[in-house]
Design a protein that fits this description.
Blueprint: H1 32-48, H2 80-92, H3 104-116, H4 132-149, H5 157-165, H6 184-196, H7 210-217, H8 227-237, H9 245-255, H10 272-285, H11 290-301, H12 322-349
Helix pairs in contact: 1-12, 2-3, 2-12, 4-6, 6-8, 7-8, 8-9, 8-10, 10-11, 10-12, 11-12
Length: 357
Amino acid sequence: MTHACIVAFAICSLAWTAAAQTPEPAPKPIEETATVAAMEAGIGWLVRHQDENGGWSASQFMRHDPKTDVCTGTGKPEQDLIVTGLAIEALASRGNTERHGSHAGAVQKAFAWLEKQTQPDGFLGAREAPNGVAAHAFMCNMMLARRMAAPPEPPTKQSLELLETLRLPDGTWPARVGGTKGDAMATFWASMAGLNSDFLSSTPRRANLQPALEALENGLLATEPSPSFEAALRCFVVREPKKDARLAALMGTLGNDLPRWCSGPDAARMDYLDWYLGARAAVQVRGAAWQEWCQALLAALVPHQRADGAHAGSWDPVDRSGKQGGRVYATAVNVCSLALARSALERVDGRPAGNKK
């Protein structure tokens, strides 16, 4: 999946002008009850489409639907690791862990499935997958998050050490094993795994990520990162965001391109993952536009959640990554976005998001 990723529980482009798109009226604030209902409906859809073995299938999730009412929006089989992780994150955003929550059983099954994807040498997933390194890096984040949430858990040191051997000389990571050009998402996940693994080592890894940031800034990757992607990473690597001119410029770009729902042919200009990462960056930096970003995110997502039949609770995978990740990706990442935006807005003055005066 070109842009489908997940930032682990512990830490965790939008520049379209749409000349052919008819401008929509300014969205109304989304009420707290509507946001909560949307998140719960999304969780419900995910739980209903979890496989018996604990994972989620990007391409075969519809086998859980009635034969007379089958969901659309399939993704690619190689995305199963990633969409399963996204689904776990969505469940966690509503308080579901392996030990707590009404869907603790679903989380337990999901982690059991993820454990079975570990190879003897510590590689997580299939080496031959076109997104093998990206998926491995993503899985490292998931396992680290699990350890931090409920230690002790299965060791991850071997997988982390293997991830470092997959790094390219320029400090980035390729999408697949054997790749020679850095990939934006693989570099993001691997960098975040390095930051999250600091608690396993006495040597901080922030300095080791500087080459990756320079590669991003200088356009040295095979896949060009969006402003949301680069800003989210810089927020966690740079210790003093207010002194980072590059981050300030990226946040200015995001502030001018708030999330907005697009229909028809323009839908592919949306990127659900970018919206989520943009919210991560905006909330972390706490700049002038962070509340506007979160409110726009709620206004874009809540009214466009499906409410019919087997699709009820899901989002159509019509964005840029939809054909890769499918409906499971779209639903899981959008639940994460709603949870993040709602939580951030609630912290402004202690009142529910959507009801601020």
